[in-house]
Amino acid sequence: MEQNQTKDNVIRETSIDRPKKYKVIFHNDDFTTMEFVVEVLKTVFYKSESEADVIMMKVHHNGQAEVGTYSYDVAMTKVELTQSMARAEGFPLKVSCVMA
């Protein structure tokens, strides 16, 4: 908690809520290549090669996988960038964002 002192020497406590977090989730499809998914995970989400491989296999075997948890603005920026890259390559990769 943060304390602010006013002119009258009255101390007021103010609380600042932490921003809500959002999970970015990749969904499997029959057309997006595994190589493309790994490349996006490395370039957009800054995952290592091994982390990207593990996430990609979870998407492939489970139908979806959580990629990361971010503030809303960061999550949506990553979702939009990923979808833009996928469309540019002709892939129907579905990416969603849900509250953590």
What features would you highlight for this structure?
single chain; 100 residues; alpha+beta; Ribosomal Protein L30, Chain: A; three-stranded antiparallel beta sheet; two-stranded antiparallel ribbon; 3 helices; 29% strand; elongated
Question: Can you describe this structure?
Answer:
This protein is an alpha+beta fold and 100 residues long. It has a single domain, classed as 2-Layer Sandwich (Ribosomal Protein L30, Chain: A). Helices cover 41% and strands 29% of the residues. Helix 1 crosses helix 2.
Brief summary:
This protein has 100 residues and is α+β, with helices and mostly antiparallel strands. Helix content is 41%, strand content 29%. The protein has a single domain (19-99), classed as Ribosomal Protein L30, Chain: A.
What's the structural blueprint in terms of helices and strands?
Blueprint: E1 2-5, E2 11-14, E3 21-27, H1 34-43, H2 49-62, E4 64-71, H3 72-88, E5 94-99
Antiparallel strand pairs: 1-2, 3-4, 3-5
Helix pairs in contact: 1-2
CATH topology: Ribosomal Protein L30, Chain: A
**Tally of structural domains:** 1
Overall, the morphology is elongated
Largest sheet: 3 strands, antiparallel
Distance between the termini: 24 Å
Cα Rg: 19 Å
